[in-house]
């Protein structure tokens, strides 16, 4: 990551929009949190519930919404979506720089691989026959690109990323350490009590602008491909089963598991630790709460949740025991209704 | 993976059994899905619920059961277990080939390691003293075999597999990238608020024909060994705690965690995302549904489930709040029963 | 790990305390389990529920509490906390040895990195500019230390550990294979349906005496640091989100996920497979049961649980369906109460 700036508030607003209130000449060199920002740093307020931090901040300026504008006398930028504005501002001050090109002598690159002249390949990398690495790509130390793998322009692999043969990654991908793309899907047929492995002949196709977190795994398809569309963001330690399709601009938080052949729509937000069963279809614009298990398809946008509420261990144990006898409780209520109705009639 | 064929339907049936219906001379070069199979490809129908795909398929032939035989006029192979048949057929068309033997000059192999002449060791691999690598084994780039590790014949390690000292893997193992075998179990004794690490002196013993998915971890035992028996199939991102034993031909789907000292029987099927607590015993032929938490031993074969059903967030919130007050609700029902009984008696 | 001894029971008690009962001259060379310990090995009894194993053991001696002292005639050491005693005894017999120093010629060490003369760096390691490696540190094969990373004295990295730039690890750390420290936190702002990545400018600061299990990931902070305090023990496949703080001497079992900005207190014990949502505060001395989802802050020490109890699939399905209609059931009970009250009044 590089550094850029400093910029005045006025210069920032020219580039990114928004309206300056207070001294437009204040110089900003970095972003910071309300709690720890120092002289020369700009913080942001995303919600009025953090207003007390705004009062106490040492930041030189703040990004906030018009409804919060009057809460501070600090120089500020007023805009509609302070969090997104702050993201763009942080990227402006901390731009991603293209890598210093070059192939490390301790990398093993097959003669039949095509590596762009502007790409960088670090020590210990192995690139097999027929792989192609686009312009300004950086391949981190110890990573592996199998036969026929394609990496789009401006992609970055951190150290120890593994991509099995024939998987294709789009432009501007960001793959973190420990990511494994294209391992075999879990395809086994049971034959008389033993498991016969089904060769996994499909690949993985990943669109543009996709980020994949550390130690996340995306399996190759059994017959057809596993597909991750443009703009998808996957956090750490996610498992994507074979033949899944994840729609464009969907974000999935860490530790979520998605079983095979499930199709997730566009613009979905899946909370961390969720479990999504196989062969389901989830439509666009669905939010799944953290740690929720999705066991059937979802056809309507909305927010879906299913988590056993935690409690003191003793209270939980009592209630959990009753959950196992809910059918009996419901039966007793039905019987009470019948008896009371009979009584009411008899007395009537 | 290699390619073999093409074969006529008649040749396939001679090798794998089943009965041909329709033109037995049709040439088959590859398997495919009903939806995307093309000329020269054979698909399969595993369940009548996909019969509409059968009608629309462009496959040249189909594998199906006798109950589905009349649903298509395509050349077909009729058999008892179409999915298992298809698995065997796919393996026949896409056979696993032995690796091209050789030790890459950028591998670090200790002089005291024994590597079979037919084995292949790729760049960046480190093999320590006393390790042994069997016939036709392939060790993928960047993998690590600690002191005394033994790999059985025909095993394959994809890139970046780590096996700690003294762990033993059987024949025909398939270990995917990011697998870690033999890291220390989580053994800590609490002494006055601080944790004392207990040296993990056991190993890991893995049988024949075991497949282990990407980024799965199997810890070494504390005093005795952790054991994975023959034919076990583990999907990605599974955690197997120290001193577990997993019985032969059990399959476990991705993201499941198994705490220490638990014994799982033979021929079990554990769904993805399950959590199995420590020091339990699960008998043979148990099925655990996805995302279910197993908190006590299971003595009877069968299917076990425990998942909070998901719902619209609002409905969930209302019901979840009531779950936390189930004991009170049950008490109110009991009181109603008492009062109604008193009333009925009083009126009687 | 080294070996030390053998020692007599008397010598052991001199070093570690406790009281010897029976022959103090018995020679002990190793620890073992009650079930498998052989001649010359010492086992331990942590709970009276394992007393039958004590009767059957072939161990030469046993560590136990005074309440169990009379259950065996074997030579024994009587102490208050047999499990902690056993841990210390196992460490005495199996001490951690400092590594054999040296930099492997196939390691890539930047000229600006500072490596202590007593440290060991294995093959395939990459250490970037400005990194520092303390005395007696061992860096396992294929590990990566980014720019400015600091590793404290006596730390050990097993093979394939990745530490991104500028993260700091204390003394006596133990990091297992596949660990990734300092990957980007999952910080994205949504702007008109697309995700804008927020540069992750913080680092990770890890205290002394921390152990981190295989394939666990600890993300770097967005603006400020992610912090793991002294003596924390993390098992395998844990995800720690950006800007979390985990208090000293807290232990977390495998497969647990902790979302961003959550603060966990000191001396907590978090069960395996737990899910802890973001922006929460959990006080000191909290125990969270395995597979429990923590969805709000916890202010009181204690044990907290929330797991759907598993059952035969059919019973579960019936009860789970009723969980989704609990609100209606509660409404029916309320109505019954009203009607019965009316009846009782009317009859009164």
Helices and strands in order, then pairings?
Three copies of one chain form a homotrimer.
Chain A: E1 7-8, H1 9-16, E2 19-21, E3 27-28, E4 30-31, E5 41-44, H2 51-56, E6 61-64, E7 76-78, H3 82-93, E8 102-103, E9 108-109, E10 114-115, E11 120-121, E12 126-127, E13 132-133, E14 138-139, E15 144-145, E16 150-151, E17 156-157, E18 162-163, E19 168-169, E20 174-175, E21 180-181, E22 188-191, E23 194-197, E24 204-206, E25 211-212, E26 217-218, E27 226-228, E28 233-234, E29 239-240, E30 245-246, E31 251-252, E32 257-258, E33 263-264, E34 269-270, E35 275-276, E36 281-282, E37 286-288, E38 293-294, E39 302-305, E40 311-312, H4 313-323, H5 326-347
Parallel strand pairs in A: 4-5, 5-6, 6-7, 8-11, 9-12, 10-13, 11-14, 12-15, 13-16, 14-17, 15-18, 16-19, 17-20, 18-21, 19-24, 20-25, 21-26, 24-27, 25-28, 26-29, 27-30, 28-31, 29-32, 30-33, 31-34, 32-35, 33-36, 34-37, 35-38, 37-39
Antiparallel strand pairs in A: 1-3, 2-7, 22-23
Key terms:
homotrimer, 348 residues, alpha/beta, Udp-n-acetylmuramoylalanyl-d-glutamate--2,6- Diaminopimelate Ligase, Chain: A, domain 1, UDP N-Acetylglucosamine Acyltransferase, domain 1, ten-stranded parallel sheet, 40 strands, 27% strand
Please tell me about this protein's structure.
Three copies of one chain form a homotrimer. The first copy, chain A, has 348 residues and is of the alpha/beta class. The first copy, chain A, has three domains: 7-93, Udp-n-acetylmuramoylalanyl-d-glutamate--2,6- Diaminopimelate Ligase, Chain: A, domain 1 (3-Layer(aba) Sandwich); 102-304, UDP N-Acetylglucosamine Acyltransferase, domain 1 (3 Solenoid), CATH 2.160.10.10; 313-347. Helix content of chain A is 17%, strand content 27%. An eleven-stranded parallel β-sheet of chain A has the order 8-11-14-17-20-25-28-31-34-37-39, with no helix packed on it. The longest helix of chain A has 22 residues, at 326-347. Chain A is flat. The mean pLDDT of chain A is 96. Chains B and C meet through β22, β23, β38, β39 and α4 of B and β4, α3, β40, α4 and α5 of C. β40 of chain A pairs antiparallel with β39 (302-305) of chain C.
